[in-house]
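Need a sequence for this fold. Nothing fancy.
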């Protein structure tokens, strides 16, 4: 692996991350499609405006919910959202990325009362503005006895009712008693991780809610250039189930591109029925198995379904009142989402973020908080001015 001293040399990230791309058999799927024409929304910290890796990629302006001074979501002072977007592109190089900036940093951890209005508004905006797949690379950790915020349940149902495949990282803490929201919701493709040998990644949060697994071991990602371009590291190392959720999101894009007539329920059906379970069936560690892009794209014997095979957050299709027939808005427009139409949110502080396994929560410290929102990816690289918290 090249060292930091050679950071300004441009690397081929497909070659650097070949183990992960090979593990999900993405290149075999590329003979059919590379994801062109499918839009994948990333609900996260935004995506870098400048980076050599991103120059030939189809990335929309998106939308920022972090204040009116930000005209779009092409800003990322952290790297988390850029890393997740890159993971999507490692699986589907020609997919369109729709960034939705709802958080600013993964440097600190704290407590809140759940997912914020930014998160609800961001998911709704993506659902209304052309997303075919939504990747949510953060979790809402609830202590035992508490339920996920109703606003998050409702807005995820809304996205699913809009015929969108919703994918969420399952968490980076094997000590958690259960898979956190939104990965735990019925209908959501909750993702755990695999290591470089294809085995269950040791830091994954596991449980019966996990639907699929994707590579989560250390990979190389483009580092946003937020200070003086040319003087910062261009790349960093990272690991986590947000990485895995990005790769599964890219695979979903390949399926939607190869089978444009399929609805989201049947895309999910293809993903789970063609996954490589190693002959073990569904497990709490890997769900239905390691996602297999080639099989998901090319299989001819997948039984069609009339509803999401994983269920629905609110119990049934259409419970949000939304439908896929509603006309989406423009993915480039600056319109604000309508607060009156968003689900009622519990009082919330800013979503907190973190790299790699910062999700460990001591119940004794939760006090009266109903939940904790944290971002899921990314092990920091060693650098003079680290903007992200190192692996703990």
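Here you go.
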């Amino acid at each position: 692996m090249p060292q930091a001293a050679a950071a300004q040399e441009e690397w081929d990230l497909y070659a650097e991350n070949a183990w992960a791309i090979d593990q999900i058999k993405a290149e075999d799927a590329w003979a059919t499609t590379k994801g062109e024409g499918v839009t994948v929304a990333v609900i996260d910290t935004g995506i870098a405006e400048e980076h050599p890796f991103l120059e030939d990629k189809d990335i929309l302006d998106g939308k920022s919910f972090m204040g009116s001074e930000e005209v779009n979501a092409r800003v990322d002072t952290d790297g988390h959202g850029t890393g997740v977007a890159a993971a999507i592109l490692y699986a589907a190089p020609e997919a369109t990325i729709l960034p939705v900036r709802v958080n600013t940093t993964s440097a600190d951890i704290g407590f809140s009362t759940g997912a914020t209005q930014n998160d609800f508004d961001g998911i709704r905006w993506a659902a209304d503005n052309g997303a075919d797949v939504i990747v949510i690379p953060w979790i809402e950790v609830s202590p035992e006895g508490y339920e996920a915020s109703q606003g998050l349940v409702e807005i995820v149902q809304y996205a699913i009712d809009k015929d969108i495949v919703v994918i969420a990282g399952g968490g980076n803490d094997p000590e958690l008693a259960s898979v956190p929201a939104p990965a735990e919701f019925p209908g959501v493709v909750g993702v755990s991780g695999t290591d470089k040998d294809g085995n269950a990644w040791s830091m994954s949060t596991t449980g019966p809610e996990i639907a699929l697994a994707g590579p989560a071991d250390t990979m190389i990602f483009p580092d946003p250039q937020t200070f003086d371009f040319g003087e910062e590291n261009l790349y960093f190392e990272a690991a986590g189930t947000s990485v895995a959720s990005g790769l599964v999101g890219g695979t979903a894009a390949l399926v939607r591109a190869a089978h444009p007539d399929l609805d989201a329920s049947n895309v999910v059906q293809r993903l789970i029925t063609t996954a490589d379970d190693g002959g073990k069936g569904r497990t709490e560690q890997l769900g239905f198995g390691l996602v297999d892009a080639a099989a998901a794209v090319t299989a001819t014997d997948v039984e069609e379904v009339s509803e999401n095979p994983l269920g629905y957050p609110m119990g049934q299709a259409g419970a949000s009142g939304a439908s896929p027939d509603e006309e989406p808005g423009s993915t480039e427009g600056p319109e604000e989402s309508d607060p009156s139409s968003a689900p009622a949110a519990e009082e919330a502080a800013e979503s907190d973020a973190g790299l790699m396994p910062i999700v460990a929560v001591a119940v004794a410290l939760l006090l009266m908080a109903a939940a904790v929102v944290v971002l899921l990816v990314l092990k920091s690289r060693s650098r003079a001015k680290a903007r992200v918290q190192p692996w703990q």
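For context: The domain at 4-375 is CATH 3.40.50.200 (Rossmann fold).
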